[in-house]
Amino acid sequence: MLNPVLKGYSYEGRKLDRDLHQKVGIVMKKLQDPEFVKNRRWGNELQTELGSLVGVKGGSIRTIKRMMEQLRIVKPNELVSSKVPDSQNLLTEEGEIFVLIIELEEKIDELPKEYAGRQQLKEQLDEMYRSFYSKAIFYYYYPEGPRGDSGRLHLLRATLKALRKYHSVDYWEWYLFNTYITEDDNAEQEAQLEQAISAYRSGRYKFDKNKDKPEKYGLSHSYVVRYLQLSGFVKVKGGGYSIRLFEGENSANLKDVVLGNDFLNDFYSGRIKI
Length: 274
Description:
Structural class: mainly alpha
Oligomer: single chain
Order of helices and strands: HHHHHHEEHEHHHEEHH
C-alpha cells in the first residue's frame, strides 16, 4: 500500500526553551529602553543591533518577533517598519507577566545550588510558565490553516480531539494528523485521518525514516509539540522518531470548554475569554 506524502504544521524556526526565554527577555528590555531605541524605527539597524546582543542574526530577531506576536507577548502592529517601538505600548498584559517570569527565572538561577528552597522555587516557576503557555495556546489558531492554504484551525482543539479519539499518537501518527487535519471540525478530513491511522496501526502503512520524511515543516514534532507540551495540555514521552503524545492533565475544565460544541463560534466571535 502506497504511503501518503506527509506534511507538518507550520512554525517559527525557534524552539521554545530557556535559551529563547532569555533572548526574549533581553530583546524586550532593550525595546522598552528609549536610550537604546534612540527613536529608530523597527528596521534592519535596530534588528541587527538586537541580534548582536543575543547572539543571532537580524533575520532570527524577526523570527523571535513573530513568535512573540503569536504568543501574545507584544501587541499586534507595534513592531512594524513604519513605527518606532513605543516602550509604553509594546507589551500585552500577558507579555508583562511573561517578562516578569523570565526575570524571576534569572534570579532563581543566581541562587546557590545548595539553597534549600531552590527546587521548590523552580517548580513554582514551571507552573507560572505553564499558566502563561496554557493561555497562549488557548488563543492560538491558524487563520488560513496550518500551511496557509485552507480554512481556520484551532490547534489545541484539533489536537485534543485527536488524542481523545486515538488515546496517544506516535511520530508518524502526529504527521498523519498534520497531513489530513487542516480545518476546524472537518468531518471529511477526520474520516481520512481515521482511515490513515487504521492503515498505519494495522501495518498497511509502513513508514521509513529515510524515505518518508515530511515534505513540509518536518520539525513540527519538535516545535509545535513543544508549544503544546509547555501548556500542560499535552504530555510527551520520548523524542525524535520515538516521540509519543498523550493528553496532559492540565485544567480539565478548560479542556472541556475547548472541546465544547459552541466553542468555535464563541471563540472566533470573541465571546469567550480566559
